[in-house]
Specification:
single chain, 285 residues, alpha/beta, Rossmann fold, two-stranded antiparallel sheet, 9 strands, binds S-adenosylmethionine
């Protein structure tokens, strides 16, 4: 009875979950340490203008990308996760036809690769290479740098490891360089970036550790290496309030970025396009 009343009081969520959410929400977190002279995707001359996609364009392309993503997924090993996405897409199309509007991590990655030439891609949280392979399919020569713990199982799903990811990339005819680093991203990513001081990225996905400290540490590590004009994408950000808060504080309120978010069902996906080296401060008059 007491349990029942407490659950009603806390929106039906178990107390331990509520407490953990509140704890995650209130924790302090590291911020990115930006440096100057960040490279630009390309185009800073009079004939070669700087023209990254704006958020509305990226969002529109992400909502049109489902058929392309389906074709790419059909080339992968048909794991439960791949089959799950295909079933969802098919059911939505059958039920809602041309009215269906939808975006997720996969369609947003496809959109980013269609709208911008990708030379370098960094992904934290690779698992079986499903999202990595979407980038490999849309940009077959892009150099890919992936990070994951690759423990035997993640969230009840087998996590076979880097060799399986390489096979998925071959299946979509990706021919660019691939570097896959196993380890905790909080240490592995900063160490890797320290060893590669000249490496900057056209596209970055954060889809690994979803705790406040894990997610913000990943953001802090990679944001200074996102090229001006480059795109950062994060999955699941509407799954838990602490991720939304971090997104707002670290990215959406930073005038270096313009953002697009899709939170209408599913776990939510968010993208930020870096528009400048330093913050663009509005004049105060
Ligand atoms: C949601 S899955 C990634 C799914 C993948 N991006 C996709 O779309 O198919 C999250 C992955 O993050 C990895 N991960 C979680 N915590 C991590 C950490 N601290 N360091 C590195 N990888 C981590 C897990 O092993 C898991 O494979």
């Amino acid at each position: 009875m007491v349990q029942f009343i407490l659950r009603r009081l806390f929106n039906g969520l178990p107390l331990s979950y509520r407490a953990r959410r509140r704890w995650e929400w209130s924790r302090s977190f590291p911020l990115p340490n930006y440096t100057e002279h960040t490279p630009t995707i390309d185009g800073m001359g009079p004939l070669d203008i700087f023209l990254p996609p704006n958020p509305a364009t990226l969002g529109a392309a992400a909502q049109e990308a489902m058929p392309d993503v389906e074709r790419a997924l059909a080339r992968l090993t048909q794991t439960d996760e791949v089959a799950g996405v295909q079933t969802y897409y098919r059911a939505a199309r059958e039920r809602f036809g041309r009215h269906w509007r939808y975006a997720d991590l996969l369609t947003t990655l496809w959109a980013a690769g269609t709208l911008s030439p990708l030379r370098t891609y960094l992904e934290i949280g690779v698992r079986n290479g499903r999202s990595t392979a979407i980038v490999g399919a849309v940009s077959p020569t892009c150099a890919i740098y992936g990070f994951d713990l690759w423990t035997d199982e993640y969230d009840g799903v087998a996590n076979p490891g880097p060799e399986f990811v390489r096979e998925q990339l071959q299946a979509v005819s990706h021919t660019g360089d691939v570097e896959l680093v196993q380890g905790d991203s909080r240490k592995a990513v900063p160490a890797f970036l320290r060893d590669h001081p000249q490496l900057y990225f056209d596209l970055i996905t954060i889809d690994g550790d979803k705790s406040t400290l894990g997610w913000s540490s990943d953001l802090a590590a990679v944001l200074p290496r996102l090229k001006v004009g480059g795109i950062l994408i994060s999955d699941d950000i509407f799954l838990a309030p602490h991720l939304g808060r971090l997104w707002d504080e670290v990215i959406r309120h930073d005038s270096r970025y313009v953002t697009w978010e899709f939170a209408q069902g599913g776990v939510g996906v968010a993208a930020a396009i870096r528009m400048s080296d330093g913050p663009l401060l509005a004049p105060l008059h």
